Amino acid sequence: xxxxxxxxxxxxxxxxxxxxxxxxxxxxxxxxxxxxxxxxxxxxxxxxxxxxxxxxxxxxxxxxxxxxxxxxxxxxxxxxxxxxxxxxxxxxxxxxxxxxxxxxxxxxxxxxxxxxxxxxxxxxxxxxxxxxxxxxxxxxxxxxxxxxxxxxxxxxxxxxxxxxxxxxxxxxxxxxxxxxxxxxxxxxxxxxxxxxxxxxxxxxxxxxxxxxxxxxxxxxxxxxxxxxxxxxxxxxxxxxxxxxxxxxxxxxxxxxxxxxxxxxxxxxxxxxxxxxxxxxxxxxxxxxxxxxxxxxxxxxxxxxxxxxxxxxxxxxxxxxxxxxxxxxxxxxxxxxxxxxxxxxxxxxxxxxxxxxxxxxxxxxxxxxxxxxxxxxxxxxxxxxxxxxxxxxxxxxxxxxxxxxxxxxxxxxxxxxxxxxxxxxxxxxxxxxxxxxxxxxxxxxxxxxxxxxxxxxxxxxxxxxxxxxxxxxxxxxxxx
Amino acid sequence: xxxxxxxxxxxxxxxxxxxxxxxxxxxxxxxxxxxxxxxxxxxxxxxxxxxxxxxxxxxxxxxxxxxxxxxxxxxxxxxxxxxxxxxxxxxxxxxxxxxxxxxxxxxxxxxxxxxxxxxxxxxxxxxxxxxxxxxxxxxxxxxxxxxxxxxxxxxxxxxxxxxxxxxxxxxxxxxxxxxxxxxxxxxxxxxxxxxxxxxxxxxxxxxxxxxxxxxxxxxxxxxxxxxxxxxxxxxxxxxxxxxxxxxxxxxxxxxxxxxxxxxxxxxxxxxxxxxxxxxxxxxxxxxxxxxxxxxxxxxxxxxxxxxxxxxxxxxxxxxxxxxxxxxxxxxxxxxxxxxxxxxxxxxxxxxxxxxxxxxxxxxxxxxxxxxxxxxxxxxxxxxxxxxxxxxxxxxxxxxxxxxxxxxxxxxxxxxxxxxxxxxxxxxxxxxxxxxxxxxxxxxxxxxxxxxxxxxxxxxxxxxxxxxxxxxxxxxxxxx
Lengths: 479, 479
What we know:
BirA Bifunctional Protein, domain 2, eleven-stranded mixed beta sheet
């Protein structure tokens, strides 16, 4: 019983120590495991299955917009990385270098890709010749490496899984449209599938991607009021095309440079799921992304007919297209409940001898513990309905949290006061100068998260310097 | 028209130069693209889509046996790689070493995984405590790196995609059963999905995996009579467990070492598809794995109603669950035919004004160019039937090729003569001594491919040394 005891030990409460709560959940829900490779993580089955579901659903949405998958090498020769000046400055300080292959020293160092713009450009320079070859809408699912000093599971690790889309277009307008289109794909996916509301907007020049003309972002608010950049989409204009010589023959038979975009979402988003929906009993997974949506837990399972009925319910739910399991281990029901809750399985079904006699079972929602009694012969319909409602209400709850933790400030005193006393987004006007962003960062460890697409005019002057304001910005403390 | 001309240029015929034919097909079918990363390849959409289909179908078969997916780091600290003596000797000479992270030199070198036994062992040593934790049936889809000197697309490259399963069991018997089970999964997948017949058997000690007690293999025969090792499954016994200290508490509360297996299949198998089924018009894809199964090619498409009818046919086939496209580009039908053939799309449907008037379309099989005329209103059923027949006949044809190129030799003279004059497998008895394997390799560049499960006794003495024979071995020249 030593092991049982260990598991049901309470996790740190999120009100006491949010960071420790996060670490506890990640471990006890079985998402991540031990590795002696510093700064890297093992995704255990429960963690990887979430990513597999994200991948499947996101990939489908990409393909519906015409995107095709490819696979690029993981190594970038140093000379290739250096071709675009801003890009190399942004990434060179944090890459891992391969210097030896087998027993020999390499003539040129190779870095392990931190992102693959340079590889795609190198490829496109040969692959694209005519306007008939455009657009190229390629994506890859892979891992990338960034040599981070401090790391946390999902949020920041030296290696992480992601997808990176890289497109090439004939015109600047097409590239801009694709940049926005993919950001909207991310935003819709987060809201519709992950039940995570996001603010969609543009990054300031200070915060944009190394080598991009413009970076767009979706920003989510975690339960502790900190922001998490959850997906980005970049418009490169023809900057990379000029550096790499990616030209095509236009219909007038003249050479033009292509216009490019890239966009990515990573396993970081699993961190967002945890920190938006989790509670003091552990993980809470939105039904649409949960690897197991329903756990059937038999009560007094030694009694005749109980396990059979549990299997019958499981079969009926599978029939209805749900992802379901029966916990028929020899643990106590109470232990099974807390395990199901820790793992964030959206719904559990309790079913004991008395329920069976009455021809019913009890459905318990993970998010609010609401109980419904359902006739066993209609269990599929009932559970489907509960899952739908839960998915919708999880989004509504997260949206309410976002709204309640989005403040407004017209002057610097109010702005500072909010960040000293509260936690969340602050909407405030900005003059457009980087000095104000730097001052705000220094004073408060707060960064500009984005200039939202849904722009508002909340004041006439910059919240920091008082000069005429140009843009309304969402500010926040970020992961 | 310069581009059109370039494409329809004939590829090298396989009878003239099989290696050049292979390279031509790989390029012209759009499977692989240019990269300036030496020894690595870009999988273009047509190539990656084949791998995606392999992955989806193989993954399903794995999961049906209880396997779960995980994700491990790509780096292995040098000290970890060195823990199992045979293993490090086998792999150290061909790994890529990371020596710098960011601007700093690492305290310990990391190799980029050539395979992940050591990482899984390091993980299992912490993850497994009790017999209740067993078996562990984990798999990952990833890329691995081996610093090869000479490389060829799919067959041998410095980085390649694969899956690697790693399991841990309580008993030696369970591990042995899992080793064989996974080899059979590979064998069945090759035959049922890829239409590639394989010889299933055990590797000799000389050819087994570094660190394994026993290695099992599926061996396929290419069109040129050379063998391709297409999937392997290893039983490690408790060797790695002892080196890494992976122990569990058994039901009697005593510590035991686990028994382990690993098994892998890689993008190499795409090379097998090409070299088993391809012909002088290009790639021929088995219907079950083809990313596009049917290409509808309108004839005289400028004429009213032709394109509409092509789209209608396409819709009907999609309805039937098939993967189908219409080629409505402004190229000539002849060009479209050769493109569809080069890309190995299993079936094309030709449909012009006269066909439409007669309410019919022409179905052409890629493998033997057999034509069927089908009523348009029953096109789904007809095409499904053609694809089924084609899938079955491709396997039969490949099996016939395998049988016709499998020879028998009882003495060394016959053995040598066959390998001098012909190409294929030779079944011959072996004494069990490595010296004979070495002599055969030196004399003929021939290696032992496997000791087949379906063992035969074709002679009493070793084909090489004449001493009493122990095993019947399939011998061949291998990729």
